[in-house]
Amino acid sequence: MKLQIFTVASIVVFMASSCGSSKKAGSSAEASLTPGDAEVKAIQGKYADVTLQTLNEGYAVYSGPCTKCHGQKNIFSRTEQEWEKAINRMAPKAKITDVQKDALWKYVLAMKAARPNQTK
Ligand code: HEC
Known about the structure:
Elements: H1 2-23, H2 37-44, H3 52-62, H4 80-94, H5 98-114
């Protein structure tokens, strides 16, 4: 079972990295919010079990249920603490599961960890 999950995750990582390279040419602001290998690497020191699949799930929540009432809230202008509070407050509003909430939290942390100097 564990091996199966690992295999699926590797395939996702492989697919994402191969299509990532073809996308690089026209990197828009929106594309820069898409998690990749750099974000996985940046978060693994804190959460060793995080895969690209986790971060993709988090991004799906961030860009899906979390935009029902307002636009995508800026990741980089808020501290980890502010995000923790906001996610705890917003998760019931967005009616997301605990798994989705966890993925969202790791996605936000990974994005921030991969770009420590970005503030907006
Ligand atoms: C049902 C509507 C609704 C949904 C769904 C929703 N929000 Fe919000 N959100 C609001 C409103 C209204 C505010 C502004 C008032 C406030 O801060 O409570 C807000 C404010 C925020 C803020 C700014 C708060 C701060 O203190 O900086 C962040 C960040 C945020 N939302 C993130 C999210 C995230 C992440 C999700 C998905 C889990 C989400 N929101 C889903 C209604 C919603």
